[in-house]
């Protein structure tokens, strides 16, 4: 499959953005990806599962045999499309709409998942928002609170709610970012939350090691998702990802297999680790 697609200049006026408005739409799963039952009998809950990386993870998990619940904010059309993709793989998909900044909603999402499927085995903390600013003085207290509430506080909420349902061999996977390692001069608050997610992952992995619940993370580089046109202007979108050694942005389909690996038994000796699908950027960590 050719992942080097031409990205046209485009913007969207609100986050987290809509996949159905992107040109071209991201590649969700490659045709040659063959499931092998790696997640048969498993139940996964994915935040931000309606589009982008979250959608791709949901479809890959489904192809591997998992039942999937996805949490989304207000992207009804994208969420329904993801549900159709998951169910086309022969499994079930539960849609849960709400704001993950609300701890009560996070608890209820876990409860709804367990009530629907009877258990929970994999928690994927993936949802995020970002708002570029030229100066730290331009970052309002409101923006700072919003970004941290979505990107990192929600992970605490979901893990606290999920833990009573997770057993030995189950998995928590957090989405961090290349910006946690190289920084981002325009995304100070976003990259700070992503750094916090790395520390959260490492610390929680130690905390849960005795329970044999594995905690890992994925740190994508520039990936073509709705968050990109919803964040940057047309000029920056056209140049997006071209600075990487591979010379292009990645596709969600090139990231989701990392989540499959961390969710299944293949990674049984991995905990506290971060995988880096980032187009060849060599990082310390």
From TrEMBL:
Q: Where are the stretches annotated Disordered?
A: 1-23
Q: Does the keyword Oxidoreductase belong to this entry?
A: yes
Which InterPro entries has this protein been placed in? Answer: NAD(P)-bd_dom_sf, Sc_DH/Rdtase_CS, SDR_fam
Entry keyword Oxidoreductase: yes
Under CDD domains, the record lists: SDR_c1
Q: Which interval of the chain is the signal sequence?
A: none
Pfam families attached to this UniProt entry: adh_short_C2
Q: Which UniProt keywords apply?
A: Oxidoreductase
| Source species, domain of life | Bacteria
Q: Biased composition, Polar residues: where in the chain?
A: 1-17
Task: Write out the GO MF terms.
Answer: oxidoreductase activity, acting on CH-OH group of donors
Residue intervals passing through the bilayer: none
Q: Which family does it belong to?
A: Belongs to the short-chain dehydrogenases/reductases (SDR) family.
Q: What is the name of the protein in this document?
A: SDR family oxidoreductase
